[in-house]
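User: Show me an example of a complex going from sequences to structure tokens.

Assistant: Sure. Here are the input components:
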Amino acid sequence: MSIKAGWKVKPHAAIIGAGRTAFGEQWYKDPEKLMMDAGVSAVESVDLGLGRRDIQACYFGSFLYQTTNKLGLVSGHMARELGINIPMNTTEAACASGGSAFYNACIAIKSGMYDVVLVGGFEKMTDRSSKIIDDLMFAADPYEFDSGFTFPGLYASMMARYIHDYSFGDQRCIEALAQIACKNHHHAVNNEYAQYRRDITVQDVLKSTLIADPIRLLHCSPVSDGAAAVILTKPELAKKYTDTPIYVIASQQATDDISLYTRESMTGIKATRLAVGKALREAGISIEDIEIAEVHDCFTIEEAMFLEDSGYYENGKAWEGIYESYESFKGSKHIPYIKNGKELIVNSGGGLKADGHPVGATGIRQIHECFTQLRGKAGKNQIDKDLNLALCHNIGGTGGIATVHILARDIHE
Amino acid sequence: MSIKAGWKVKPHAAIIGAGRTAFGEQWYKDPEKLMMDAGVSAVESVDLGLGRRDIQACYFGSFLYQTTNKLGLVSGHMARELGINIPMNTTEAACASGGSAFYNACIAIKSGMYDVVLVGGFEKMTDRSSKIIDDLMFAADPYEFDSGFTFPGLYASMMARYIHDYSFGDQRCIEALAQIACKNHHHAVNNEYAQYRRDITVQDVLKSTLIADPIRLLHCSPVSDGAAAVILTKPELAKKYTDTPIYVIASQQATDDISLYTRESMTGIKATRLAVGKALREAGISIEDIEIAEVHDCFTIEEAMFLEDSGYYENGKAWEGIYESYESFKGSKHIPYIKNGKELIVNSGGGLKADGHPVGATGIRQIHECFTQLRGKAGKNQIDKDLNLALCHNIGGTGGIATVHILARDIHE
């Protein structure tokens, strides 16, 4: 363990099970069926057994189920599927819907009202075809939509500004922002659930179709279908369900202007900065203590900005750290970011870029990935290290909301 | 006070302020602007002062903002409008979105994470015109939609079954289900925020346009725009903000099959029965102790079913109670339901029927109404009695979800 001796923390909740579907194109499954599949696999994953009637409340996160899937009142669908009449809640926070549902579920456990809570995220996007591009813009300012922006366009503005302000167009900066995609594709090769399990090269990225200059196709996370679920319990009950629970030691959410044009900065996400700062203080650790992180890489620029917003690299310097790390470690099973000789592995299962981005599912998929890696149960994709501390970062829109959760295997209460 | 001596209860939260917009047609206001108006009026209503920076989290409820208003990530809009970066959550539970947001806000206060939370509900429906009928069906089973049902059709099935099973077509039953509309219109006459402030007669109801036999136009709640908001704090902090807080002494939610065709019964709502039963047990009272109730009268049959689901009247007997009460008290400022000489006033401000039903706002509007009546601050519409206990009942779809909250003015912890 890398953290200070005597470190003590009181967890919000314990994670005792996790399940998910494969991400990608799921033509023959309704969204609520995908959610059920993930939920059932989470329930069945609990080592010492859990019945669906042991679940006392559910929290679901999804973004476009209404417009894209003509679906409402998800609770009523799930009550019928599960055959139980417990409290169920549905949270919408754009691409952070999963993270927001998890945040609310942690609060619910903390309130003492429930012993066992299921948290799920789902999204079914592919059958909406190209119309999904317009639907996704519900998470942006209407003026931005009306003036012709799409999400790649909004992130392209940030990426162009970043390259200009921090590297003056340095070729290494441009390559670093492509290397993020290469790293995340590489991490997905051994992930059996991932949408894209193939390596790509920096040249593949830089020669892929131009979407919104400087963003090219391979800088972008895909449109995906999928669902993920995790089971939470009170920390003091965790050992009843598994010998190896994972604890939620920080849970934070912050919001910011929905519109990019009213923000203080184009080269960082204020909501991330606030949420990650509060989460690290809550856990009593620093960002250097984190060993693995799931970062919201909807476009590669966002992973670079996280590395600065979290304080891992200095403002304007992430691209240099990324470039050096990638050149030093490319070819390794997992490619870490290095800083003062220490390593941080980001998006060990491929992230949004390669594992896939069914938006409402993403925040829960991130928790699933860290839960699995911290327990050493990631199979062929297991990181070859003893891991204790993980961080999950999920944002909505261009950063109108951010959730940050820190997970720990071994804690001292 | 009607409850037993020595009654003690530990409240979830205290309500210290409430605000709302007028309900009806609001052509020149965006939904997020309506929500802001209600939120600001709630903040300004706090007797001893509250600044918007004292709010530590927000919970919003809305149903169709995405499809109807092309709006997503409400948190990002509100963060910009309020100029604060606090955690904000959006809950969708069809017509119970407001109740569900309030339920989650109570959990948040109970968790100890926040001192002051704003809960809001909003909906802007009128500018969607007749398309809103299809959008609303997202809260029903897709098979029901595909076979031609609308919400009036689904409730008409329940109403027809109720009249058939429980009265064999007795004219007094048919009149009782019209009297509910007359009573609620009468209650709205002095409510300055209400959409319809005019009396109607039983003959008006029974001669109004047939919508879905036996449901006629004046059995139905309207399509409305509007918003409402309340401010919650920890019970122990309440007196810092007002000398007359109102306490939330029970907060319950239950779910059931989204589809009517898979339910056990067509003449009652199981989710209501479960939620109201649990709420009464939690508060340590019986339904006869409740003095005023806000009941989800989306169609008048639903108010009648509540009176049975809650145990106030015996199964199949509500229509007799309604008929007798109305005949005895019509013309009174508020028309109570009577049982063994005791009175229960339902929907004192007009309910969904006459106050209006901007769906996501309704659950919060109900809390606003009870908060105001319990404090004796309802102005011209104030009930002429000393009131202590109120109940709010909000359902989604045809009863796929129900929330029940019990409020008290004087408690003994």
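The lines above are the inputs; the final block is the predicted structure for all two components together. The longest helix of chain B spans residues 171-188.
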